[in-house]
Write a structure and sequence with these properties.
Rossmann fold; about 200 residues; alpha/beta; four-stranded parallel β-sheet; about 15% strand; 9 helices
Length: about 200
């Protein structure tokens, strides 16, 4: 019997974030699923260019296929993130995944999902008891404008915050955030799309 889902992720951080999410089916509001996550050796550009080729051999082993990568670094600057998703999905469909595949392209990058308004973000990034607060520090350092909820360059902001807190960046941080931060408080388009795709494929 085929497993439910195979995910082609652009990097280990994306893989661990998805592990943190997919292992919480009740919070995600889907039924429990069997899944495998693999990382494309060519990362974001590879996901855009050769997802169909990488996943072709998996068609009989899995019911659904999902490709997930960052827009930043994908090499697809002449298209929008939504257009890149459509291009990946078209190639998957032609290769044999028609009607059972999807792509999620995060604009600009995975770290955009980190910056929700959840108090768990400060804790996971090592800022729980620090003064000033993480948000105030981001504003002071020029990573965040008071007019916006998220930094313009989310990955740079994550790396700087971890460095200031004397924490080393690791994929486990992304899994921890996925386990602790509410799935309903992130307003990112790609995050909402991921939830919609999974809930449509695997309803409770």
């Amino acid at each position: 019997m085929a497993s439910d889902l195979i995910v082609l992720a652009a990097c280990q951080n994306t893989k661990f974030a998805l592990l943190g999410m997919l292992n919480q089916s009740e919070r995600l509001r889907i039924r429990p699923i069997s899944f495998t996550i693999i990382v494309h050796p060519e990362h974001d550009p590879g996901c855009v260019r050769t997802s169909a080729e990488v996943l072709r051999s998996q068609q009989r082993l899995y019911e659904k296929a999902l490709v997930m990568c960052d827009y930043e670094g994908s090499g697809a600057r002449e298209e929008s993130a939504i257009d890149v998703e459509k291009r990946i999905e078209q190639r998957l469909s032609v290769s044999g995944w028609a009607g059972r595949s999807a792509a999620v392209v995060i604009d600009p990058e995975l770290e955009a999902w980190v910056w929700s308004d959840s108090p768990h973000v400060e804790e996971v990034l090592g800022w729980r008891y620090r003064i000033p607060t993480l948000r105030a520090w981001l504003v002071d350092q020029g990573f965040l404008s008071t007019e916006y909820a998220k930094p313009a360059h989310p990955k740079e902001a994550v790396l700087a915050a971890l460095k200031a807190a004397n924490l080393r960046r690791s994929s486990a941080i992304y899994a921890s955030l996925a386990r602790s931060v509410s799935f309903e408080r992130c307003s990112d388009r790609a995050f909402a799309r991921l939830k919609d795709v999974l809930r449509n494929w695997f309803p409770q």
